[in-house]
Structures are given as structure tokens and as C-alpha cells.
Design a protein that fits this description.
The chain has five helices and ten strands. With 151 residues, the protein is of the alpha+beta class. It has a single domain, classed as OB fold (Dihydrolipoamide Acetyltransferase, E2P) (Beta Barrel).
């Protein structure tokens, strides 16, 4: 029942954001804004199909990261600062809502990781989430980059 409810809520939230702003949230760290695919630089969130284990309960942590981002954006239009393109030709950027970094919010909430391979910008935020056992830090999880290697 929980998974079905989560999917219904996600659908409602997605429709609200997409129709309001010409915005689509692809996953926890990727959006399409005005037709441009934007990958949040310096962070990595779990993949949509990725699950975590909280005690004995399986949690759709990848979907939860996406829902968290959708809720944080609400009806706002993110303002993004481009940092170039990645190898997949996506725009790499840090995006903000009401002057607040979406990347910092996701990492500090425990549903994104500082992507140390590419940046050191969000390490302090990750340390905060880890020390306070927030989000995925309160669960058993696989780092997204390790999950992608096995998928």
C-alpha cells in the first residue's frame, strides 16, 4: 500500500510542477527546464529504481529523492548557473529556488551525495547529513555510482 500511495503522490506532484513551470523533474539530480536537460553538478542522487533498507523495510530511495526535489521546487522556477556540459551533452549547473541551492538541500537532507569525483563543494553538507543520520544515512544503501556499475 505504501508504494502505491507514493506513486500516486509522485504523479500528482509531477503534474503540478510540470504544468506550472515548463519544468520536468527527471530524477533527484536532473531536470528539464524550457527544453534544456540540466544535471545538478557536484552531487549524485540514487537512481529511480534504487532501493535502500530501513530496518527490514525496503524504501524506494531513488523515487523519494525525486519527490523531495519536486516538493522543494513547488511552483517555483529554478534559476540555474551553468558550469558547462557533461559527456552526455547535458548542461551541468547548480540550481536555486528562492536563492537556496537545490543541491545543498538534497545533500544536507541525506538524499544526495557529494560527488567527490567531480567536486568538493558539498562535502560539509554530506558530513552534516551523515553525522545526524538523515535520509539515506539512516538506512543501508549503495552509493549511486556503485549501483550504476552493477545495473
Amino acid at each position: 500500500m505504501k508504494k502505491i500511495l507514493g506513486i500516486v503522490v509522485m504523479g500528482l506532484l509531477w503534474c503540478n510542477v510540470a504544468s506550472a513551470n515548463n519544468l520536468k523533474v527527471v530524477d533527484g539530480d536532473t531536470i528539464i527546464l524550457n527544453g534544456e536537460k540540466i544535471r545538478f553538478s557536484g552531487i549524485d542522487t540514487p537512481e529511480l529504481k534504487q532501493t535502500c533498507l530501513q530496518n527490514t523495510e525496503e524504501v524506494d530511495c531513488g523515487m523519494f529523492a525525486k519527490i523531495l526535489l519536486v516538493k522543494k521546487i513547488g511552483n517555483n522556477i529554478p534559476k540555474c548557473i551553468s558550469e558547462g556540459k557533461d559527456i552526455y551533452k547535458r548542461t551541468l549547473a547548480e540550481c536555486f529556488v528562492n536563492g537556496k541551492s537545490l543541491s545543498k538541500f538534497l545533500v544536507r537532507s541525506g538524499y544526495a551525495f557529494a560527488y567527490r569525483k567531480y567536486s568538493t563543494k558539498f562535502i560539509a553538507d554530506e558530513d552534516f547529513a551523515k553525522a545526524n543520520k538523515l535520509g539515506m544515512w539512516a538506512m543501508k544503501f549503495q552509493y549511486p555510482w556503485d549501483f550504476r556499475k552493477k545495473s
